[in-house]
Automatic annotation (TrEMBL):
One of its GO terms (molecular function) is acireductone dioxygenase [iron(II)-requiring] activity. It is a peripheral membrane protein. The keyword Amino-acid biosynthesis applies. The keyword Glycoprotein does not apply. Catalyzes 2 different reactions between oxygen and the acireductone 1,2-dihydroxy-3-keto-5-methylthiopentene (DHK-MTPene) depending upon the metal bound in the active site. Fe-containing acireductone dioxygenase (Fe-ARD) produces formate and 2-keto-4-methylthiobutyrate (KMTB), the alpha-ketoacid precursor of methionine in the methionine recycle pathway. Ni-containing acireductone dioxygenase (Ni-ARD) produces methylthiopropionate, carbon monoxide and formate, and does not lie on the methionine recycle pathway. This is Acireductone dioxygenase. Keywords: Amino-acid biosynthesis, Cytoplasm, Dioxygenase, Iron, Metal-binding, Methionine biosynthesis, Nickel, Nucleus, Oxidoreductase. GO terms for cellular component: cytoplasm; nucleus; plasma membrane. Belongs to the acireductone dioxygenase (ARD) family. Signal peptide: none annotated. Fe(2+) binds at H90, H92, E96, H135. It comes from Helianthus annuus. Pathway: Amino-acid biosynthesis; L-methionine biosynthesis via salvage pathway; L-methionine from S-methyl-5-thio-alpha-D-ribose 1-phosphate: step 5/6.
Amino acid sequence: MAILQAWFMDDVPNDPQLPHQRNPKEFVSPDYLAELGVLHWKLNPEKYEDDEELEKIRADRGYNYMDLLDLCPEKVENYEQKLKNFYTEHIHADEEIRYCLEGSGYFDIRDNDDRWIRIWIKAGDLIILPAGIYHRFTLDTSNYIKLMRLFVGEPVWTAYNRPQEEHPARRNYMFNFGQKIGTPLKAH
Protein backbone atom coordinates (compact mmCIF):
# COMPACT_ATOMS: atom_id res chain seq x y z
CA MET A 1 0.00 0.00 0.00
CA ALA A 2 1.40 3.36 -1.01
CA ILE A 3 2.02 5.87 1.74
CA LEU A 4 0.72 9.42 1.58
CA GLN A 5 3.37 11.75 0.18
CA ALA A 6 3.95 15.11 1.88
CA TRP A 7 6.83 17.59 1.93
CA PHE A 8 7.84 21.07 3.01
CA MET A 9 7.30 23.48 0.14
CA ASP A 10 9.81 25.83 -1.46
CA ASP A 11 9.09 29.56 -1.62
CA VAL A 12 9.15 29.86 -5.43
CA PRO A 13 6.06 31.87 -6.49
CA ASN A 14 5.53 30.20 -9.88
CA ASP A 15 2.76 27.83 -11.04
CA PRO A 16 0.98 26.47 -7.92
CA GLN A 17 0.23 23.21 -9.77
CA LEU A 18 3.93 22.25 -9.75
CA PRO A 19 5.26 20.09 -6.86
CA HIS A 20 7.22 22.90 -5.16
CA GLN A 21 9.66 20.58 -3.39
CA ARG A 22 12.67 22.10 -1.68
CA ASN A 23 16.18 21.29 -2.83
CA PRO A 24 17.15 19.04 -1.14
CA LYS A 25 13.70 17.52 -0.68
CA GLU A 26 12.28 17.55 2.88
CA PHE A 27 9.57 14.95 3.26
CA VAL A 28 7.04 15.02 6.10
CA SER A 29 6.06 11.83 7.93
CA PRO A 30 2.48 10.66 8.50
CA ASP A 31 3.21 10.94 12.25
CA TYR A 32 4.04 14.64 11.86
CA LEU A 33 0.82 15.18 9.89
CA ALA A 34 -1.11 13.38 12.66
CA GLU A 35 0.44 15.73 15.25
CA LEU A 36 -1.10 18.58 13.23
CA GLY A 37 -4.49 16.82 13.28
CA VAL A 38 -4.40 15.52 9.69
CA LEU A 39 -5.83 12.01 9.33
CA HIS A 40 -5.39 9.68 6.35
CA TRP A 41 -6.63 6.32 5.12
CA LYS A 42 -5.65 4.43 1.95
CA LEU A 43 -8.76 2.77 0.49
CA ASN A 44 -9.69 1.04 -2.76
CA PRO A 45 -11.38 3.72 -4.91
CA GLU A 46 -12.73 1.12 -7.33
CA LYS A 47 -15.14 -0.18 -4.70
CA TYR A 48 -16.15 3.09 -3.01
CA GLU A 49 -19.86 2.36 -3.52
CA ASP A 50 -19.77 -0.74 -1.30
CA ASP A 51 -16.54 -0.38 0.69
CA GLU A 52 -16.99 -1.71 4.24
CA GLU A 53 -13.92 0.20 5.50
CA LEU A 54 -15.28 3.48 4.10
CA GLU A 55 -18.69 2.79 5.65
CA LYS A 56 -17.05 2.10 9.02
CA ILE A 57 -15.11 5.41 8.86
CA ARG A 58 -18.31 7.26 7.92
CA ALA A 59 -20.28 5.63 10.74
CA ASP A 60 -17.54 6.10 13.36
CA ARG A 61 -17.11 9.79 12.50
CA GLY A 62 -20.78 10.63 11.79
CA TYR A 63 -20.35 11.49 8.08
CA ASN A 64 -23.92 11.18 6.86
CA TYR A 65 -23.75 13.49 3.82
CA MET A 66 -21.80 12.68 0.66
CA ASP A 67 -21.46 14.09 -2.82
CA LEU A 68 -19.05 13.73 -5.72
CA LEU A 69 -17.11 16.47 -7.51
CA ASP A 70 -15.29 16.21 -10.84
CA LEU A 71 -12.83 19.09 -10.86
CA CYS A 72 -11.40 19.81 -14.30
CA PRO A 73 -11.69 22.59 -16.90
CA GLU A 74 -14.27 20.66 -18.96
CA LYS A 75 -16.72 20.01 -16.11
CA VAL A 76 -16.61 23.10 -13.86
CA GLU A 77 -18.02 26.51 -14.72
CA ASN A 78 -15.60 29.34 -13.93
CA TYR A 79 -12.87 26.72 -13.45
CA GLU A 80 -9.96 29.18 -13.20
CA GLN A 81 -11.78 31.33 -10.63
CA LYS A 82 -12.83 28.29 -8.57
CA LEU A 83 -9.24 26.99 -8.53
CA LYS A 84 -8.03 30.44 -7.48
CA ASN A 85 -10.60 30.49 -4.64
CA PHE A 86 -9.56 27.00 -3.46
CA TYR A 87 -5.92 28.16 -3.44
CA THR A 88 -6.59 31.16 -1.20
CA GLU A 89 -5.39 30.35 2.34
CA HIS A 90 -8.37 29.76 4.63
CA ILE A 91 -9.92 27.75 7.45
CA HIS A 92 -13.30 26.09 7.93
CA ALA A 93 -15.46 25.82 11.04
CA ASP A 94 -15.79 22.07 10.35
CA GLU A 95 -13.46 19.28 9.23
CA GLU A 96 -12.66 19.05 5.54
CA ILE A 97 -13.06 15.42 4.44
CA ARG A 98 -12.04 14.45 0.93
CA TYR A 99 -11.70 11.01 -0.66
CA CYS A 100 -9.84 10.99 -4.00
CA LEU A 101 -11.49 8.53 -6.39
CA GLU A 102 -9.56 9.48 -9.55
CA GLY A 103 -6.81 11.89 -10.55
CA SER A 104 -4.68 13.83 -8.09
CA GLY A 105 -4.15 17.18 -6.41
CA TYR A 106 -2.46 19.03 -3.56
CA PHE A 107 -3.69 20.06 -0.15
CA ASP A 108 -1.29 22.57 1.43
CA ILE A 109 -1.44 23.01 5.20
CA ARG A 110 0.43 25.26 7.64
CA ASP A 111 2.41 23.68 10.44
CA ASN A 112 2.93 25.26 13.87
CA ASP A 113 5.95 27.20 12.55
CA ASP A 114 3.81 28.64 9.72
CA ARG A 115 5.64 26.55 7.08
CA TRP A 116 3.69 25.18 4.13
CA ILE A 117 3.43 21.41 3.85
CA ARG A 118 2.21 20.03 0.52
CA ILE A 119 0.17 16.81 0.69
CA TRP A 120 -0.21 14.99 -2.64
CA ILE A 121 -3.47 13.08 -2.73
CA LYS A 122 -4.11 10.42 -5.35
CA ALA A 123 -6.77 7.83 -6.05
CA GLY A 124 -7.52 5.94 -2.84
CA ASP A 125 -6.44 8.67 -0.41
CA LEU A 126 -9.04 9.74 2.14
CA ILE A 127 -7.82 12.80 4.03
CA ILE A 128 -9.33 14.73 6.92
CA LEU A 129 -8.15 18.23 7.74
CA PRO A 130 -9.22 19.41 11.19
CA ALA A 131 -11.46 22.44 11.60
CA GLY A 132 -9.38 25.60 12.03
CA ILE A 133 -6.20 24.49 10.22
CA TYR A 134 -4.92 26.96 7.62
CA HIS A 135 -4.95 25.26 4.24
CA ARG A 136 -5.54 25.59 0.51
CA PHE A 137 -6.06 23.24 -2.45
CA THR A 138 -5.02 23.04 -6.07
CA LEU A 139 -4.85 20.44 -8.78
CA ASP A 140 -1.49 19.13 -9.88
CA THR A 141 -0.47 19.29 -13.56
CA SER A 142 -2.87 16.44 -14.44
CA ASN A 143 -5.66 19.07 -14.16
CA TYR A 144 -8.18 16.47 -12.97
CA ILE A 145 -9.49 15.06 -9.72
CA LYS A 146 -12.70 13.27 -8.76
CA LEU A 147 -13.45 13.74 -5.08
CA MET A 148 -16.00 12.39 -2.66
CA ARG A 149 -16.85 15.13 -0.18
CA LEU A 150 -18.13 14.03 3.21
CA PHE A 151 -19.84 16.04 5.94
CA VAL A 152 -21.53 15.67 9.30
CA GLY A 153 -25.05 16.92 8.60
CA GLU A 154 -25.79 19.37 5.81
CA PRO A 155 -22.70 20.61 3.95
CA VAL A 156 -21.27 23.96 4.90
CA TRP A 157 -19.00 25.48 2.24
CA THR A 158 -17.94 28.63 4.09
CA ALA A 159 -14.23 29.43 3.87
CA TYR A 160 -12.78 32.04 6.21
CA ASN A 161 -9.70 33.59 4.60
CA ARG A 162 -6.63 34.25 6.70
CA PRO A 163 -6.21 35.92 9.19
CA GLN A 164 -8.70 34.16 11.45
CA GLU A 165 -6.85 33.93 14.78
CA GLU A 166 -9.98 34.85 16.78
CA HIS A 167 -12.33 32.47 14.94
CA PRO A 168 -13.61 29.82 17.40
CA ALA A 169 -12.51 26.97 15.10
CA ARG A 170 -8.99 28.41 14.85
CA ARG A 171 -8.75 28.97 18.60
CA ASN A 172 -9.94 25.39 19.21
CA TYR A 173 -7.43 24.06 16.66
CA MET A 174 -4.57 25.92 18.35
CA PHE A 175 -5.68 24.63 21.75
CA ASN A 176 -5.76 21.02 20.50
CA PHE A 177 -2.88 20.95 18.01
CA GLY A 178 -0.87 24.15 18.44
CA GLN A 179 2.46 24.21 20.20
CA LYS A 180 2.09 23.68 23.91
CA ILE A 181 5.07 25.22 25.67
CA GLY A 182 6.46 22.88 28.31
CA THR A 183 4.23 19.97 27.28
CA PRO A 184 5.92 17.18 25.31
CA LEU A 185 4.03 15.64 22.43
CA LYS A 186 3.01 12.02 22.86
CA ALA A 187 4.63 9.52 20.52
CA HIS A 188 2.29 7.82 18.07
